[in-house]
Amino acid sequence: MTRRVNVAILVLLAVAFLIVIQRNLLSLNDFLRKEAPDTVSGAILPFESEVSPGVRQDSKRTGDEVPVVLTASEDRLGAVVAAMNSIYQNSKANVVFTIVTLNHTVDHLNEWMSKTSLNNVKYKIIVFKPDVLNGKISNNAKRLETLKPLSFARFYLPLYLPEAEKAVYLDDDVIVQGDIRELYETSLKLGNAAAFSDDCDSASSKGIVHRAGNQNNYMGFLDFKKEAIKKLGMRAKTCSFNPGVIVANLTEWRSQNISGQLEHWMELNAKEDLYSNTLEDIITPPLLIVFYKHHTSLDPMWHVRHLGTYHRLEPT
Asked: Are 68 and 74 in contact (CB under 8 A)?
C-alpha cells in the first residue's frame, strides 16, 4: 500500500513539474516576441506596407525633426509612397515629410496615405502652382512635350519649410536603403547651399544616353557656343552632378537667393536657348550654372543611378 502511495505521489510531482516547465516556456516565448517583434527596421520591403496594411508604424517618434521633401504627381503616387516607406522603415529618426503636388492630386494623395500604414507618419501637403513657371520655359516643342511642372519644385525648397535650416530633397523614383538621418547630417562646406552626388563618382559616369552624348560633364547639358555661357568662364569638362538627391542648407539658400538665381537662368534660356540641343532635361542645366564649383559632394553611395533603367553603354 505504501509503495502505491509513493508511486502516486511521484506521478503527481512529475505532472506538476511538467506544468511548471510548460508555463515557463510560454513566458519565455512571450518575452522573445516582445524583444524581437515581426516589424524590424530595415527588414521590410518597400511595398510591404501596401500589401500588409497591418504592419505597425511608430507614430511617437521624437527628437530633432528630419525634414524630407518629395513631389507626388498623379501618375506616380505609388512611387512616392514606396519612397516614403523605404525612408521610414530604414530609420528611427523623427522624419517629417513635405509632399509637393498639384491641386488636382491632393484628394487622391490623401486617400493613398490614409489606406496604408503611412497614415501614421508626420507629413504635410504643399500645392505647387505651375503659374510660377510662366515666362521661364523655352517654347521648344520637344521640351514642352516632356515638361513636368513638379520637376521644378526643388528650386523653391525654402518656401515649403520657412522655419527649417536644412532639408533633404528626393526624387520620387528613389528607394532609400540607409538611415535618412545620416544623409541629412551630411556636413556641407562653409557657404554652400546644397550637396549633390557628382556624376563622375557614380556608375552613371560610363552612361551614354541615346542621342544625348556623354552626360557626366557640363558640355552634355549646356551650349558652350552661346555668349552668356562663355562669359561664365566655366570649364566644359567639369563633372556634372545629379539633382535627384539634394541635401540643402536652407539658410544659405535663402541668403544667396538661390531660387531667384535659378529663375534668372530659366528666363534667359527661354530667350536665348542656352541648353544643349540634344538634351530634353531642362531641370539640371540651371542648377549646374548656379552651383558651379560651389556645392558639396555627397557620398556616391547615397545616389546609385540607373537601377532598373536601361542605358546604352559604349564599349570600353
From this structure: no
Helix ranges (DSSP H) in the chain: 2-35, 48-51, 77-89, 106-114, 141-145, 157-160, 180-184, 227-230, 250-255, 258-272, 284-290
Amino acid at 71: T
C-alpha cell at 226: 552661346
Q: Is residue 58 part of a domain?
A: no
Cell digits of residue 267: 528666363
Give CA–CA dist 283/152, Å, rounded: 7
pLDDT on residue 115: 80
Rounded distance between C-alpha atoms, residue 42 and residue 88, angstroms: 9
* Position 288, amino acid: L
**Residues 247, 168: Cα–Cα separation, whole Å:** 5
208 has which bridge partners? 214
312 touches 210 (CB < 8 A): yes
Q: Given this model, what pLDDT does residue 305 score?
A: 62
Whichever domain contains 174, its CATH number is 3.90.550.10
- What is the distance between the alpha carbons of residues 311 and 313, in angstroms, rounded to a whole number? 6
The number of domains in the chain is: 1
Gap between the Cα atoms of 251 and 140, Å rounded:
35
54 in any annotated domain = no
pTM for the model stands at: 0.75
Indicate the residue type of 87: I
Q: Which domain holds residue 99?
A: 63-204+241-258+290-302
Would 102 be classed as within a structural domain? Answer: yes
Residues of the chain with pLDDT under 70: 1-59, 140-146, 201-215, 303, 305-316
Query: What pLDDT score does 304 carry?
Result: 72
- Given this model, what pLDDT does residue 295 score? 97
pLDDT of 6: 53
Question: Dihedrals φ, ψ of 115, to 5°?
Answer: -100, 10
